[in-house]
Amino acid sequence: MFVRMRISRIYTICLLFFLSFNCKAQGQDIHKIDSSLSSIYHKMWKAIHEERFDDPSSAVFKAQMLKSLKNPVTFERSFPKLSKLITIKTSPDRKIKFYSWEEPDEGAYHSFNCIAQFRSANGKVVTWEDLTDTTGFGCTDSKVYQIHEVGINKLKYYLVFAHVTRGGGFQVELIRLFRIQGDQLIKCPSCLAGQTDLVIQYPKSQRSDLKFNSLTNV
């Protein structure tokens, strides 16, 4: 019995050491990724301020974001530096995140980029862009600022509020409902007044104050 207790104690010590080492390694990984992405982001805006509109930093930043967000550690950990530069929103159940940032633009328009990161049903961390959008106001060109959980027909959906800034004196709010199915985000086909996307356009001189009541689903 003494031998069993000793073996159990050694096993516990080894397990704690492994967990401690693993957490430290993850901390180092996220620090490296955070610093690299933040550095590229600063270069991107420095280029636009110096009117170097052909600088590749914007494309490089997006490519690195897509690559980095496939690393599971980025889903579990936060970005201390990057979170001060871009908008990162997480669902209440922490199963989906949206990363949004403004892109340099030499005109009157404000361009946004947005990438979703979520955990699929089998536990895999997946990144997603809405490249099939047909509204002209896609999630790849929006800044997500609210995520709510909504139950519809016994399925969990994520109600997403996004802001799209347009030229010509107008602003746009984009509202969508998604659910995780396998390794994809699926839009609710007719949950928003019979549409997949609810687009609200209004003058820049006005302000929107969209709110969602989780108790009434309104």
Textual characterization of the structure:
Strands 5, 6, 7, 8 and 9 form a 5-stranded antiparallel β-sheet that branches. The radius of gyration is 21 Å and the shape is globular. A hairpin with a 2-residue loop joins strand 7 (170-181) and strand 8. By secondary structure, it is α+β, with helices and mostly antiparallel strands. Helix content is 30%, strand content 32%.
Question: Would you spell out the secondary-structure blueprint of this structure?
Answer:
Elements: H1 2-49, H2 57-68, H3 72-76, E1 87-90, E2 96-103, E3 111-119, E4 125-128, E5 143-152, E6 155-165, E7 170-181, E8 184-187, E9 197-203
Antiparallel strand pairs: 1-2, 2-3, 3-4, 5-6, 6-7, 7-8, 7-9
Helix pairs in contact: 1-2
Give me a quick take on this structure.
The protein has 218 residues and is of the alpha+beta class. The protein has helices spanning 2-49, 57-68, 72-76; strands at residues 87-90, 96-103, 111-119, 125-128, 143-152, 155-165, 170-181, 184-187, 197-203. It starts with a helix and ends in a 15-residue tail after the last strand.
